[in-house]
Specification:
With 238 residues, the chain is an alpha/beta fold. Helices cover 39% and strands 25% of the residues. It folds into 2 domains: 1-64 and 156-238, Rossmann fold (3-Layer(aba) Sandwich); 77-150, no CATH class. Bound molecules: adenosine-5'-diphosphate and magnesium ion.
């Protein structure tokens, strides 16, 4: 579905990502974990065409991705960040936005918006002003908005990190349910191994801008391939 070959990213003469190889298969949710500053968001932005790599190549659905990424490709992806970037309108309009841009009929938009708000347990907030939502509600609306366009690839950058523990737990469970029914191809970034273990079957560990390990979360935890990976994961195994 999405492939990255030998991606490097340099900013201000500093190498932020180095020799990244990555392959995302249709229907899987792949995790990307690493400490703060390890380059997770940078890599996610490159994979989601928000930044251009300094070198390396990207392939989307088997096609090489040109530097000027066409709208036809951009419209196939959705991104959710740590801080929900909702517009200052009603919840309904926020979720409807991507569908309107894609020219869907009003009735279809209404059905889809209602369906996705329901899936994330926020249908009752449909008419509420988005800016009046709690953090957890806002993140639920952001996820509904992302799923509503039925993206070919979904990117989630620390979607629960700003939430308190019980809120986070509830949303993690609901998101796992949605993944089960939709099989949406997803890249999930988190610094929390719990998120990764709960939601992904395969994960990459990023340290200092390099992928240092890859495997199932359980396998990585049980048998970390190197001392540095062991050291990083030690915090989560206790
Ligand atoms: N646009 C940028 N310009 C310069 N440095 C950047 C830029 N974006 C990220 N960085 C640097 O790259 C490193 C990795 O950042 P980031 O990808 O945000 O890490 P993470 O998401 O894992 O916390 C950090 O040291 C950060 O300061
Ligand atoms: Mg980040």
């Amino acid at each position: 579905m999405l492939e990255a070959q030998e991606i490097c990213w340099k900013q201000d003469n500093r190498l932020i990502l180095q020799g990244i190889n990555f392959n995302l298969l249709s229907g899987e949710c792949v995790g990307l974990i690493g400490p703060n500053g390890s380059g997770k968001s940078s890599l996610l932005k490159i994979l989601a065409f928000l930044e251009t790599p300094t070198s390396g190549r990207l392939f989307f659905q088997g096609q090489s991705v040109p530097k000027a990424v066409p709208l036809s490709i951009r419209r196939k992806i959705a991104i959710v960040f740590q801080e929900s970037l909702l517009l200052n309108t009603r919840v309904f309009d926020n979720v409807a936005m991507g569908l309107k841009i894609r020219g869907l009929a009003k009735g279809i938009i209404r059905d889809k918006v209602d369906y996705w708000l329901e899936q994330f347990g926020v249908a009752h907030l449909s008419k509420q002003a988005a800016r009046s939502l709690s953090g957890g509600e806002a993140q639920r609306v952001s996820l509904a908005r992302a799923f509503a366009i039925e993206p070919d690839v979904l990117f989630l950058d620390e979607p629960f990190s700003a939430l308190d523990a019980p809120t986070k737990e509830g949303l993690r469970i609901d998101l796992a349910k949605v993944f089960k029914t939709t099989q949406t191809t997803t890249v999930l970034v988190s610094h929390d191994f719990k998120d990764i273990a709960h939601l992904t079957n395969r994960t990459l560990i990023l340290l200092n801008g390099q992928v240092v390990a890859e495997g199932s979360p359980a396998e990585l935890l049980r048998a970390p391939p190197t001392e540095e990976v062991k050291h990083f994961l030690a915090y989560f195994s206790s």
